[in-house]
Specification:
The protein is α/β, with parallel strands linked by helices. It has a single domain, classed as Nucleoside phosphorylase domain (Rossmann fold). It is globular and about 50 Å long.
Length: 246
């Protein structure tokens, strides 16, 4: 696979019908694949698994929707490129972020204004100095789905080392630069979309406010917060699907 991959290559390898294409895609950054697939099934019904590792397809509202579940920038980059080769013209990134501003709380949304690149993988697609703003029309559409919930509109930093690589010094520096959150995948989605002229946006949910010493290792024990988190997770999934297929 280490060559310039074409649509013909994908057709041959995965057995796609030559007429098959993808109109839009939703990318989810998570390591919890079975749970993620189940959440998509709850919204969309049965899904068609066409490509591994975790790429599924669904016809929805007259559109062919691709769904990718990935973890980390390299895997995400391959999946986004896969969707682009199949024809996607709109890509929405969803997932989770570590909050980098002290006024944030768990379950807050970040409707990403711009992706900041420390992920490494995006450098294979664009020069390092190329900025990655979100497509404003998609941001506006996603905002309507988040009405009534706390939404930040801040730059999102994507890193390469994984969630266990962060240090207190790094987190403080990122916060001081005004970044809203840190994740692994958003920058690669935006970079590939920018490279190939695809509309793109990201709606992410705060899993832990890392700038305040919070951590994923600190489980949600408050019942009200847990309920709020689940409600907003459904908003994130549902809003991304609707906007992608809008």
């Amino acid at each position: 696979m280490y060559h310039e991959t074409s649509r013909a290559d994908l057709n041959q390898h995965f057995g796609f019908d030559p007429e098959f294409s993808v109109d839009a895609a939703v990318m989810l950054g998570t390591s919890m694949v079975p749970q993620a697939l189940q959440r998509f099934v709850e919204i969309l019904g049965p899904l068609t698994t066409v490509a591994e590792p975790f790429i599924v397809f669904k016809n929805y509202k007259g559109k062919s929707l691709g769904i990718g579940i990935t973890y980390g920038p390299t895997m995400n980059a391959d999946c986004v490129r896969f969707m682009q080769i199949l024809g996607a013209r709109r890509i929405i990134q969803i997932g989770y972020y570590g909050g980098l501003q002290s006024h944030m709380q768990r379950a807050d949304f970040n409707l990403v204004s711009e992706a900041i690149r420390e992920d490494g993988a995006s450098d294979s697609y664009l020069e390092k100095n190329v900025a990655l703003p979100a497509t404003t029309t998609l941001v506006s559409s996603l905002a309507t789905h988040c009405a009534g919930h706390p939404v930040h509109r801040l730059p999102q930093l994507s890193i390469v080392g994984g969630i266990l690589s962060e240090t207190a010094e790094q987190i403080s520096a990122w916060s001081n630069r005004g970044y809203g959150g840190v994740d692994l995948e958003t920058a690669t989605t935006f970079a590939i979309a920018r490279r190939f002229g695809i509309d793109h946006a990201a709606l992410l949910l705060c899993s832990d406010v890392v700038v305040s010493g919070d951590s994923l290792l600190q489980r949600i024990t408050d019942a009200d917060l847990r309920e709020k988190y689940e409600i907003r997770r459904k908003v994130m999934f549902g809003g991304a699907i609707e906007v992608a297929c809008g």
